[in-house]
């Protein structure tokens, strides 16, 4: 019952993942914001496959007090998380309009008052939608313009509302040779959809079911995507079309994220304020670190800030046991407030050229499970620890902890294993993550996440590189850092081994980033 309640709660809150509130055209404001003018509208975008009728993409524009042809202001695009819709409430964006920014909040394709189906931020559909919205903004006489068709533009939003930001910037770079966005502030979003929804082809079952369920009320998903998410949850493998009658999600989602653009040699040369959840079980910390490392030019990283906070897409972690904390100590350390306040100061500097005293540029700031903030200049592993043999039963048994390091030790960034793998079964799987405790018996996952090792066929002594969840943790004296190996995971419920047996790791080496404490 506890699990069903958690799933129901998560499904209900998917709509609010992001920075915008819910509402529809004409929805009453909680209270009026003096001087702010709200206007509804729609642009017409490309038709759905097999049709000829253009699709309406609907929005609400909030014009701040004093903005006009003689006093032009930057515009902030805002959009919602999966299952949500745009805000029509001026109070919900008052922090930005009070700071003198215009805001355009829009319903993404398939959601709210917009038409069509959600193609999960595909360049051929949502890419066109964002470009049409930018074109509309470029014609608003009260919005600051850098050149014809190029407004001074920032963007906010989390989860799916972060996906459109990278899509819009990369698509402008692809089609025009420059990103029309001048600064981004994406939160809890992805680098590669297939790798986040199904790392190593092993489906994050709970999230596949929740994303499917959230799309039903709006009939948002194309039928083949809805079918594929259910297939993945039922079969335990990400559908790639290799099984007759199943969908091919690998091809469908190939272009739907920064990873594809990066593979084509594109990098964004604009400042980005990253917000990523350290305890996020859908788009984990590593997804944000991959975007930081690969999606930006070196110059852009120098003008960017990465914040990892405790939160995001979170479900209770009991098997294996994780932590339960929601906090954002790094935004507080950097800006004296929450991520929204940090965003406004970031935009003031990057869109307006104002000096606000904001620091932390060019570095990663990651929250710890004890509400601390670790700062590092790189996320790449710089330290290796040999831990020998790690044995994991397949399909049954308890998580096994292996000592990595005694405290005090500070770790922040990416991590992985290298090991000689032996597995006698077919479709054997095990799940690995870093944990802290005073002994292997009470060790808890640092930030709720594990990643799978999948061996489709028997292997004997094959050297493997096994990803681990990225972490930020300050292990105190008296506690230890462990590698936790488990035959199962709640996030990947039902995705354990298909045959009995064991997975044996020999000559195992843990690669992680040890760091000295820095001031944010």
CATH topology-level fold name of the domain at 383-512: Jelly Rolls
Proportion in β-strands: 25-35%
Q: Uncertain regions: pLDDT < 50 for 5+ in a row?
A: 1-31
Structural class: alpha+beta
What fraction, in percent, of the residue positions are helical? 10-25%
Question: What is the number of helical segments per DSSP (H or I, 4+ residues)?
Answer: 13
Given the C-alpha coordinates, what overall shape results? globular
Distance between the termini: 42 Å
Largest sheet, spatial ordering of strands: 1-2-4-3-7-8
Q: Write down the Rg.
A: 23 Å
CATH architecture verdict of the domain at 383-512: Sandwich
Number of strand segments: 21
- Average pLDDT figure: 90
Oligomer: single chain
CATH level 1 class label of the domain at 383-512: Mainly Beta
* Main beta-sheet annotation: 6 strands, mixed
Organism: Nocardioides dokdonensis FR1436
Family: Belongs to the AB hydrolase superfamily.
Signal peptide: 1-32
Pfam families: Peptidase_S15
Topology readout:
Blueprint: H1 2-13, E1 37-45, E2 55-63, E3 75-79, H2 94-98, E4 102-106, H3 126-138, E5 145-147, E6 150-151, E7 153-158, H4 160-176, E8 183-187, H5 193-197, H6 205-215, H7 223-235, H8 249-252, H9 258-263, E9 273-277, H10 285-295, H11 298-302, E10 305-309, H12 329-335, H13 339-352, E11 364-367, E12 373-376, E13 383-394, E14 400-406, E15 409-423, E16 428-437, E17 444-445, E18 451-455, E19 459-475, E20 480-486, E21 501-512
Parallel strand pairs: 3-4, 3-7, 7-8, 9-10, 10-11
Antiparallel strand pairs: 1-2, 2-4, 5-6, 11-12, 13-21, 14-20, 15-19, 15-21, 16-17, 16-18, 16-20
Helix pairs in contact: 1-6, 3-4, 6-7, 12-13
């Amino acid at each position: 019952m506890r699990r069903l309640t958690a799933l129901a709660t998560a499904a209900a809150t998917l709509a609010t993942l992001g920075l915008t509130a819910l509402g529809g055209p004409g929805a009453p404001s909680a209270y009026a914001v003096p001087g702010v003018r709200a206007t509804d509208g729609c642009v017409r975008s490309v038709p759905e496959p097999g049709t000829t009728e253009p699709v309406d993409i609907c929005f609400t524009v909030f014009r701040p007090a004093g903005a006009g042809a003689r006093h032009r202001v930057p515009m902030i695009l805002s959009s919602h998380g999966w299952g949500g819709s745009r805000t029509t409430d001026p109070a919900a964006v008052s922090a930005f309009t009070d700071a003198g920014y215009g805001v355009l909040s829009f319903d993404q394709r398939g959601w709210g008052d917009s038409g069509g189906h959600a193609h999960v931020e595909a360049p051929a559909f949502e890419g066109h939608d964002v470009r049409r919205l930018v074109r509309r903004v470029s014609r608003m006489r009260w919005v600051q313009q850098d050149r014809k068709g190029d407004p001074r533009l920032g963007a906010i939003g989390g989860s799916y509302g972060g996906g459109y930001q990278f899509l819009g910037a990369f698509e402008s770079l692809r089609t025009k040779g420059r990103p029309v966005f001048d600064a981004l502030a994406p939160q809890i979003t992805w680098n590669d959809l297939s790798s986040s929804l199904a790392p190593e082809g092993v489906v994050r079952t709970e999230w596949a079911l929740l994303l499917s369920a959230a799309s039903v009320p709006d009939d948002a998903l194309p039928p083949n995507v809805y079918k594929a998410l259910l297939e993945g949850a039922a079969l335990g493998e990400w559908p790639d079309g290799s099984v007759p009658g199943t969908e091919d999600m690998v091809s469908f989602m190939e272009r739907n994220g920064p990873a594809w653009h990066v593979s084509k040699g594109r990098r964004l040369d604009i400042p980005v304020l990253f917000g990523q959840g350290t305890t996020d079980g859908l788009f984990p910390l590593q997804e944000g670190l991959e975007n930081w490392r690969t999606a930006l030019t070196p110059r852009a990283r120098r003008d960017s800030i990465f914040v990892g906070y405790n939160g995001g897409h979170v479900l209770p972690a009991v098997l294996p046991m994780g932590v339960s904390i929601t906090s954002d100590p790094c935004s507080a350390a950097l800006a004296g407030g929450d991520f929204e306040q940090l965003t406004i100061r970031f935009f003031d500097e990057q869109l307006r050229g104002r000096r606000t005293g904001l620091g932390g540029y060019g570095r990663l700031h990651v929250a710890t499970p004890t509400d601390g903030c670790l700062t590092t200049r790189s996320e790449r592993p710089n330290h290796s620890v040999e831990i020998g043999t790690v044995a994991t039963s397949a399909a049954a048994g308890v998580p096994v902890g292996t000592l990595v390091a005694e405290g005090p030790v500070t770790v922040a960034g990416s991590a992985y294993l290298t090991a000689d793998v032996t597995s006698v079964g077919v479709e054997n799987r095990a799940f690995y993550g870093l944990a802290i405790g005073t002994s292997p018996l009470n060790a808890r996952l640092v930030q709720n996440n594990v990643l799978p090792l999948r061996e489709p066929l028997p292997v004997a002594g094959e050297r493997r590189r096994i990803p681990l969840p990225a972490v930020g943790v300050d292990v105190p004296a008296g506690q230890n850092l462990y590698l936790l190996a488990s035959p199962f995971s709640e996030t990947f419920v039902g995705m354990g081994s298909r045959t009995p047996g064991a997975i044996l790791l020999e000559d195992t080496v843990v690669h992680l980033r040890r760091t000295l404490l820095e001031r944010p």
